[in-house]
Amino acid sequence: MNKIFIYDSVKKEKVLFEPIVENQAKIYVCGPTVYDDSHLGHARSAIAFDMLHRVLKANDIDVTVTKNFTDIDDKIIKKMNESSRTLEDITTQYINAYKNDMHSLNILDNTLEPKATQNLEAMIEMINNLISKDIAYKIDDGIYFDVSKDTSYGNISKRASDENSIARVELNTQKRNSSDFALWKFEKANDVAFDAPFGKGRPGWHIECSAMIEKHLAYENKPYQIDIHGGGADLLFPHHENEAAQTRCSSHTELAKYWMHNGFVTIDGEKMSKSLGNSFFLKDILKSYSGEVVRFYLLTAHYRTDFNFNEEDLISSKKRLDKYYRVKKRVYGSVASSVNKEFKNRVLEALNDDINTSKAISLVDEMINGANDKLDNNPKDKNLKKELISNFEFINDILGICFNDAYEYFQFGIDKDTKKTIEELIEKRTEAKKQKDFETADNVRNELTTLGISVMDTPNGVVWEKL
């Protein structure tokens, strides 16, 4: 295995990644609460940890990636009461929408995608265990975790409490400590509730991740349950702090050996949030730009930095990706041979250094510029074309871009009916050329040009793209 360095959010420094079990990596990434469509923050996190997945795979590590769906939550219940729809109806809609958006961004499939409602037994078991140790206790509105019983509480985030949050919320005088948090919330009016030996209700947010990691992923007889726990920077406290505490006190093992967090997304300089009304839904941006363009744009900045999203930079980023596809067009129809080893090693070296995508992309830029120069000098060099096709396959594998057909990429935004019309006109032109009716063929080409379509005759057939 090559040396891979990642930034550990707890140690606040880059460290050498050393798997708990040789050549294996178990990763858990906090997934969405499925009450609404996915936004740019979801895209940022998904792409960051998709890159981690790809980089580890490229280094011949057997990777297990688990991302949960929180399908029971105050916001989901609020939507149920407002719409008279069932919990399953709402959550299924938004889980499917999320998966479709992730597919558009070319996110690799997760190994496991557990739902909170399907893992209640594991949560109840963990809560019972904590109650038996007097680390969890019962009050009028639920079961709470006593943070004073965990001597290591605060080690993950270097914070012992969220003073702002406590100041905003009316203090529950029954709690032993102001920082104690709910493991189980007892049933209220217009609520969703499940049976449990300690009282009918529903799980708190933090318990689901701890319980699902222990159930689905935990190494046996190891000091850590998983290799890497990931999520957005906003989850470091209190969510990840509380997860770590629950696991530590329940199983006497640490939750994760490494903790990784991606930066925030701002929109034109303002932090993205639902309350500000600037939470940019992916479904809206994907109407105007392909998922590949969005992915490429988000990859241009390091995953740990805060990302300022604006359309002007998105357009510039698309033009940069267009250059890659223009080279791909120049080698269209060639068969892959083997990737350029120097290029591959340099890109991997950049990505093995805490997933430095901006440096990796600059190396791709360099390769593309060199490819254009070489093709200008040797337009019929078959070996060069084969190598470039292999380079593009590697770029797809490692960065998740350049996976589209060289001409279809430039067809984005054209609806199915228009595509059908274009294909029919091309067929008409092809038939006219066969009949040596060049006047009709030229007229059809002019008609296509009027539609904003450019037609190219290649050794592999007729191809077209949007002008």
Overview of the molecule:
With 467 residues, the chain is an alpha/beta fold. The protein has 15 helices and 15 strands. The strands form five sheets. It has a four-stranded parallel sheet with strand order 4-3-9-10. Strands 5-6-7-8 form a four-stranded antiparallel sheet. Helix 14 packs antiparallel against helix 15. The longest helix has 21 residues. The radius of gyration is 26 Å and the shape is elongated.
Which terms would index this structure?
four-stranded parallel beta sheet, 15 helices, elongated, alpha/beta, 45% helix, 467 residues, 15 strands
Strand order of the largest sheet: 4-3-9-10
Instruction: Count the E strands.
Output: 15
- In percent terms, what proportion of residues is strand? 15-25%
Proportion in helices: 40-55%
Mean pLDDT: 93
Secondary-structure element series: EEEHEHHHEEHEEHEHEEEHHEHHHHHHEE
What class would the helix/strand composition place it in?
alpha/beta
Q: Provide the low-confidence segments as ranges.
A: 164-169
- Helical run tally: 15
Quaternary structure: single chain
Cα(first) to Cα(last) distance is: 46 Å
Shape: elongated
Major sheet characteristics: 4 strands, parallel
Radius of gyration of CA atoms, rounded to a whole number: 26 Å
